[in-house]
Amino acid sequence: MIHSFDALILGGGAAGLMCAIEAGKRGRRVAVLERADRLGKKILISGGGRCNFTNLHCQPESFLSSNPHFAKSALARYTPADFIALVEKHRIPYHEKTLGQIFCDRSARDILKMLEEECRAAVVSIFLNTKIQEVSRPANFVVRTPSAEFHAPALVVATGGLSIPKIGATSFGYDLARQFGLKIRDPWPGLVPLVLAAEDRSHYCDLTGVSADVTASCNEQHFREKMLITHRGLSGPAILQISSYWKQPQQIGIDLAPGREVTAIFRDPKAPRNSAMLAAELRKLQAHRFADRWLDLHAPASWTNPALADFERQAHAWTITPAGTEGFDKAEVTAGGVDTDELSAKTMESRKVPGLYFIGEVVDVTGHLGGFNFQWAWASGAAAGRAL
Ligand SMILES: Cc1cc2nc3c(=O)[nH]c(=O)nc-3n(C[C@H](O)[C@H](O)[C@H](O)COP(=O)(O)OP(=O)(O)OC[C@H]3O[C@@H](n4cnc5c(N)ncnc54)[C@H](O)[C@@H]3O)c2cc1C
After folding, report:
1. What share of the chain has pLDDT > 90, as a percent?
2. 60 upstream amide cis, omega within 30 of 0
């Protein structure tokens, strides 16, 4: 069977659905070809089931890319306010949690249902359980599946990155880009927990579940948020954020008392200089178990001013060299991807292969934690959808 459309969109996730809605609204006959048995599986598991669908403070600086300017145009033309307007049109209750992060009050299912309704209104054809065997371009694009052939002059690749293979992530998008001669920036896991080296693990990992307010730094990036100790290493927002910037074998710096002076009390000549006093001060800033462990491992060499200054310095500059990350199995996002030099920043169309578009996570644009990755999916999807 042969199906002909104006555009084929491969992947029915966040970016693919937004692209289909925008193109459908403009009267284009579009089909979404999705490999899974349902649309938007990642939307459903996102934000702990509540989908952090955008961020009020969306700026180009919230994204990593080998070309930091690339995302600006699409982000400016489809903003968090645009997506929030859509959410409000569907009467979906939402709230700001922290740092501009917008979550559903009820469930991520609300967002998926909204996108599905918008697809229906825009007369988008959806094909689930579609196993793509081959993509060619004799004249138009031809996508072959075991039971049908799809033909269209435009093809949009929205198949996402490598994160969470368990729910269907594959290298399909990168392979297709290579097939058409486009360059790929090597993908790496982003927003991912770090695994500590054996010695650090033996020092800290029995404290699994303890969290600390820290600033994590690497490659001139700094994130002040919570850090969480896991049974293999470190996680929590500060660590997830910095993980996107970390490359083995670099070090990560952790300030355990950001903006505070742990030893300030000892300027008071009446303050007793002893472990109990120092522990009490550190416990004001960190969880008791972590404070006590830190003191066990980094007790000042003496109670002199230079020794206390050294203790202070160490508390602001804990340096770790992670053994690695938890990899794509646990990464919330895939950094790297289709090289932005290959694409138009306005439309996401390939410069080399007219009619071929790449949107969403498969592109070398990666957001910080906090709703930025969905905002990129909506914005890049809308950019392509308006150009089809
Ligand atoms: C656990 C988790 C929580 C997250 N929470 C948030 C959050 O709260 N906020 C946020 O901004 N971001 C979050 N993210 C990141 C966000 O989900 C992704 O960045 C976003 O979904 C990317 O959208 P996409 O459309 O590019 O790719 P995806 O959403 O991954 O969609 C790709 C689609 O393509 C399909 N596909 C793959 N291969 C093929 C093929 N060969 N043929 C046909 N179809 C194919 C897949 O089945 C999938 O439906 C989270 C990610 C994870 C893993």
Report:
1. 99
2. no
